From TrEMBL:
It comes from Bacteroides stercoris. Keywords: Lyase, Signal. This is Rhamnogalacturonan lyase. InterPro entries: Ig-like_fold, Integrin_alpha_N, RGI_lyase, RGL11, RGL11_C. GO terms for molecular function: lyase activity.
Length: 639
């Protein structure tokens, strides 16, 4: 087995490009037509911060005039960044407009507006939600709802994003646990809180982190995003139409059983209920929904169907109902949606194209197919997508194995399942993409490897389940991106050397570009922290009061990424009373202006896949950090 894997990886190493790096043809690549992304945020009682996008289509010397209520408030065009502090102490609403200036003349290309509401809160946009009513399970238990994972998409074609939100019932379950769950609901909201639609996935889709992976992307290049996800009999679209059989109920009522008596017990074990709420049978569909209306545009049979449960790893639908999904430019031009099932044993990835009328299966990769056996059992609770081999088409890094753009297995490392995975250009002097991953097999620990080939650059073996790992440039004294994990014995540099063995309170869940320098900050629960490399300590930078995170110990926001405003990232959290979302926007001045990360396909897809499984932070397909030199994404650095 090991010999076969070694031969497989060696063959790929010989065939792979020695200078693999993303090589997209941006003239053909179908992407969003982004607007200016103007946002105005109350910084304090007397100041409003205005920020906006700098687009790659803007000439390098573009400046920007800022207007408030039709009056220009910038004495000269803003050239140093895409950020402006306006002295505005009135509690009244104000409309801000940003106009590009090229060669001293204002243009009307990609002008952008935003209205600051009256009595606006400080530091964030308040997005009120239509909280669902409480529900009751067939067992008579009451459950409530809270906002959970979110995504973004331009559903109406105006160049700006709407929020697509999954509501999580309080009785949602991990696949390992029995029990009824409430119905999964998907909403769409404008940033002002206007609800556009609600989809109810119905009683035959179980609620939990691994059941519903929803992809939001413009798949047919009509300027408007679609939503794609698994549905079942009884799912209801945004217009009230039922998918399949409205009367079907595939939930198991459960059966009583008596566990075996444990050695030393003096009393017989009490009877227990087994398999209640699980779903072992029934029709499953893949449905494309209109982003504007929530209407189901087409439903086809989900690929793959669950079939025999044991083939996925057990007979309780724990392993068979582990789903992942992603967006990928498999042909280097059109975005495809890839729906995935299984990663502990059998693993299937199915790619689909949507042309506006028909959803067609492009290819299917199945580890049950002859020749693919060694790719089984290698999946993560997440995945990454990028052109890792420089052919201009995306590959799918599915944990410890990778599938090529054509649906063929590229390589398998054989290191098995893990909970976290990070992909980017780690080394500013090496254009190749690399991967930092952790493993659950109580052997392989954490690994840093080449994305194109699977070749291990360095490894930190460990005899425990290494559950989390993180990668971010947080130390300007070290070249490239730093790495750490739950068992890394401190922070490691790109050579694998320990550079901070005594680091204290270093978060390991999420990261965000927030304060305006080139280093990244840590995000955990409702706190953004800054690493101080001088004393090897991470200290809080900002705390978001009355807001909270999701998904237990994973402590991730609903979403983080460059959603609006300048190149820095925003944080979307739910309020503690679960009635609203808050989009937190940095009001810290920055001297830098970069083309928005959203124009990079690797970064944009990392936002689309953030809701998949255990959420991972955004990461671009290029190096970004303190080592940047020359002209980079519209910014000129001094050598």
């Amino acid at each position: 087995m090991k010999k076969h894997l070694l031969c497989l990886i060696t063959t790929i190493l010989i065939a792979a490009s020695l200078n693999a790096q993303p090589n997209y043809n941006y003239e053909k690549l179908q992407r969003e037509d982004l607007g200016r992304g103007v946002v105005a945020i109350r910084k304090d009682a007397s100041t409003v911060t205005v920020s906006w996008r700098y687009l790659s289509s803007d000439p390098m010397d573009t400046g920007f005039n800022v207007y408030r209520n039709g009056k220009k408030i910038t004495p000269e065009p803003v050239n140093a960044g895409t950020f402006y502090d306006d002295s505005y102490a009135s509690p009244d609403a104000a409309t801000y407009e940003v106009r590009p200036v090229v060669k001293g003349k204002e243009t009307n290309r990609k002008n952008g507006r935003y209205t600051l509401p009256a009595n606006a809160p400080t530091g964030y946009i308040q997005i009120p939600m239509q909280k669902p009513a409480n529900g009751v399970t067939p067992a008579g238990d009451t459950y409530t709802y809270s906002p959970n994972d979110a995504s973004i998409g331009d559903v109406n074609g105006d160049g700006e994003y709407e929020i697509i939100l999954k509501w999580d019932p309080s009785n949602s379950h991990d696949n390992a646990h029995d029990g009824y769950t409430g119905e999964v609901l998907i909403d769409c909201y404008r940033l002002n809180g206007e609800q556009l639609w609600r989809i109810n996935l119905g009683k035959n889709i179980r609620a939990g982190a691994h059941y519903t992976q929803f992809m939001v992307y413009d798949l047919d290049n009509d300027g408007k995003a679609e939503i794609v996800m698994r549905t079942a009999d009884g799912s209801i679209d945004g217009k009230g139409n039922v998918i399949g059989d409205a009367t079907a109920d595939y939930r198991e009522p459960g059966e009583m059983y008596t566990p075996r008596k444990k050695k030393g017990d003096t009393r017989p074990p009490a009877p227990r209920l087994r398999n209640q709420g699980r779903i072992f049978k029934g029709k499953e569909y893949l449905t494309v929904f209109s982003g504007m209306t929530g209407e189901a545009l087409q439903s086809i049979e989900y690929i793959p169907q669950r079939g025999e449960l044991k083939g996925w790893g057990d007979n309780r639908a724990n392993r068979s109902d582990r789903f992942l999904a992603c967006i990928a430019y498999l042909d280097g031009i059109h975005p495809s949606v890839v729906m995935c099932r299984g990663y502990y044993a059998r693993t299937v990835l199915a790619a689909f194209n949507w042309d506006g009328k028909n959803l067609k299966n492009h290819w299917t990769f199945d580890t049950d197919q002859p020749g693919n056996e060694h790719f089984a059992g290698q999946g993560n609770h997440n995945l990454r997508v990028a052109d890792i081999d420089g052919d201009g088409c995306d590959e799918i890094v599915y944990g410890s194995m990778t599938v090529d753009h054509n649906g063929k297995g590229l390589y398998s490392t054989g290191m098995g399942h893990g909970d976290a995975l990070h992909l980017t250009q780690f080394d500013p002097d090496n254009p190749q993409l690399q991967l930092w991953a952790c493993h659950e097999n109580k052997k392989d620990g954490s690994t840093f490897r080449e994305a194109a080939t699977g070749k291990v650059i360095f490894q930190l073996p460990h005899s425990t389940d290494v559950g989390r790992c993180m990668a971010a440039d947080i130390d300007p004294t070290q070249p490239g991106v730093e790495m750490w994990s739950a068992r890394s014995e401190g922070i490691r540099n790109i050579k694998g050397e320990v550079v901070a063995p005594r680091v204290k309170k270093l978060p390991i869940n999420m990261a965000v570009w927030w304060d305006g320098d080139l280093l990244r900050e840590m995000l955990d629960r409702n706190v953004i922290s800054k690493y101080n490399w001088r004393v090897e300590t991470c200290t809080p930078l900002v705390t978001f009061e009355d807001a909270t995170s999701n998904n237990g110990t994973k402590s991730n926001p609903c979403l983080q990424g460059d959603i609006i405003g300048d190149w820095r990232e925003e944080v979307l959290l739910r309020t503690t009373d679960n009635t609203a979302l808050r989009l937190y926007v940095s009001t810290i001045p920055t001297e830098y202006r970069f083309h928005t990360f959203l124009e990079d396909p690797v970064y944009r897809i990392s936002i689309a896949t953030q809701n998949v499984g255990y959420n991972q932070p955004t990461q671009p397909g290029f190096y970004f950090g303190a080592d940047l030199k020359g002209t980079f994404r519209g910014y000129r650095f001094k050598e």
